[in-house]
């Protein structure tokens, strides 16, 4: 099955000379949740804006379900729902009117039952006659999602969808994203919340300074780059690490009471066993131990800082 979005050689240079994207190649698979991570100014929003036809690229090609988004803009754009980072909607319209109007913009026949279902999924049905100006920030963001879903897109872009909303609403939105994926909607998510990507994504892309520096399945990424740490609380202070333990590159705390061992998550089991035997041979006793698995945030920070 071909990817639902194919991006080839995409560049964007603004009139100021700033190069926001540098020869980006990226495929998004049908039905996946793809998280695009990167620091501020990395090019996330520019990339999304080009794919959605809002910004024109300097060079390169974007195919949306086979349609060139420049040569066949209407067909390509009809596949896409976009929830931008900024809240843009008519404050004096009712929720019902603004969502229903969005469906008509894409040439879809009126379908009040479908609109009602979208509002119900987003816990907005009881607010359908409210003017948008009267809603909380979290409810306004739900309205933006409803507008993006009104024309039944097969692809949904969520640009920082939970920025500035409370924890409960974030969890509600996570549940909604998973339901949409279960229905076959492809979701591209940009976020500053690493736990959001860790919770939702099937694959993760990292962009830095306009370039994609990594694309990997979440589980595979954690397996390849994840590190584990073993911290040993010693029974008595240790002045120096014995030379017999030099191969383990252990770190000794200033007070001599904690030994820390960092190891590859894939092969740590065997080396830990050998380390324990070496500690016993060196007559080093410990009273407690703890392990720590690298989070996606640890990996992201490492990748970007190395770049």
Tell me what you see in this structure.
- The protein is α/β, with parallel strands linked by helices.
- It is built from ten helices and 14 strands.
- It folds into two domains: 5-222, 3-Layer(aba) Sandwich (Rossmann fold); 227-306, Alpha-Beta Plaits, CATH 3.30.70.
- 34% of the residues lie in helices and 27% in strands.
- Strands 6-7-8-3-9-10 form a six-stranded mixed sheet, with helices on both faces.
- A hairpin with a 2-residue loop joins strand 9 and strand 10.
- Helix 3 (95-105) runs parallel beside helix 5 (137-149).
Task: List the keywords.
about 300 residues, alpha/beta, Rossmann fold, Alpha-Beta Plaits, six-stranded mixed sheet, 10 helices, 14 strands
List the helices and strands and how they pair.
Elements: E1 5-13, E2 19-28, E3 33-37, H1 44-51, E4 59-64, E5 67-68, H2 73-78, E6 80-83, H3 95-105, H4 112-121, H5 137-149, E7 155-159, H6 167-182, E8 186-190, H7 194-200, E9 203-208, E10 211-217, H8 218-225, E11 227-234, E12 251-252, E13 258-264, H9 268-281, E14 286-293, H10 296-306
Parallel strand pairs: 3-8, 3-9, 6-7, 7-8
Antiparallel strand pairs: 1-2, 1-4, 4-5, 9-10, 11-13, 11-14, 12-13
